[in-house]
Amino acid sequence: MKLQIFSAILVLTGIFFTGCKKDYLQVVPDSEYSIDGFYKTQIDFQQAIAGVYAQQQSIYNRTTQLFYLIILPQGDEVVVPQFYAEGVDIGTADVNGGSILSEWSLLWKIIYQNNLILDKISQGAFADTLQKRYITGEAYIFRAWAYWMLSYQFGGMPLIDKPISVAEILTVPRSTVEETFNFIEADYKKAIDLLPEEWTGANKGRATKYAAMGMLARLYMFQSNFSKALPLLNGITASTKYVMEPTYLGCFLDSKDNGPERVWEVQYTGGQLGEGTNVGPFFLPGSSPFDPAFFLKPETNYTTINIIDNVSQSLYWAFTSTDKRRDVSFLKKTKMFGVLDTNTVYCKKFAHFDAYTPKDGNDWANNFPILRYTDVLMMKAEALNEVGYTADGEAFSILNSVRQRAGIKVYTSGDLPDQTSFRNAIRKERKLEFAFEGLRSIDLLRWGNYIEVKNLWFALPENWGGKYSLKNFNKILPIPSAQITANNNTKIMWQNPGY
Question: What is the CA 444 to chain-centroid distance, rounded?
Fold first, then answer.
């Protein structure tokens, strides 16, 4: 049974959403009395943490956020639109707001909500002390996750760990990236100590100890601290609570939501209750009248054009014709108003369904992956290789299990005779396995080849043939100009260089 958050959203609307401003510098509600009056009972805190899940849901379910900050920055996954190419070339990519301001504000709202929970929960009246412990752990993992999302995209952040006034917020300067990462690390460690190993029943889908371990391992991998990542990854695999989904398709079916492949994922539910997702159809052209089956079949006659997020040809052809992941992930050879198109490629990875048939474009029940078990294993294989290459060792077994599921040739030490060749193989496999899952830019940034890969992508004929290019400063996004203006003190909040 899926985690249900709809009723909590209704309860919290007046407290967190209509009572709060749009950006984090003005998130203190108009009435402190209403906040203090709310955080009293176990039910209050259960509803409060449900509101945090709802905020995460909204971040991944808004097409603007997904498009600008999860897909476009990924390096080489979509055909780049000209307005984006022009922006990165001259250093003005969305500086004045739009999707970047919206993403920034939503993440800071999550930080604020969790600061409220952590500040007040010690005085809360709980009939179940375990619930008190677990909700505290959830607040820590969500605060860490929000700071992680902000820091790898924007750089060092102001570190705020309790509810404070707007005037006080304006005095907190940006910290360094290293200091921000240390803050995130501490929060993940607290979450690991407090969260349960699993949730059952109606609570299935809530964050667990192993989700926190995996996310901390991702932070360590980003820092190339492989020796710290390995014990966490080993702890997840040793738990025996997770296994790779037998088929690649199963990794994205709604019937498999919260299954053993899914360590942590954004929760969605169909039923036209406002808890469905529009990620699946977002990447695809549509039909009129609405028919969800249209999204999955080749040579369907589409009647709604989608021209801004087509799959890069270079990504599509990186898959061999026998790789099962290609047909699960992509739709090619479609008809548009009766005219056959054999070139354009669309992503259909998140439009598969088998348990619930969507009733409209916002009604998909597919959860969105934050951390799949396959990613845990792939990080482990990479870390093992970086700590010390072993011919045909455990890292080979992990990589080959991923390739076997995809139906493609496995590797031996004859194919990958040293650390460098294995490293290159892992990097290529991650590109294919996790396409469009929001991991590509994270990987390229931590590998140190983000600019190189993305400029090769810009050089493709489909991406303006080298007319535009990234500079080194484009590795992070600009701070929304509204935040600079609101603070009015460049020693506290300053723009990232180059923008």
Answer: 15
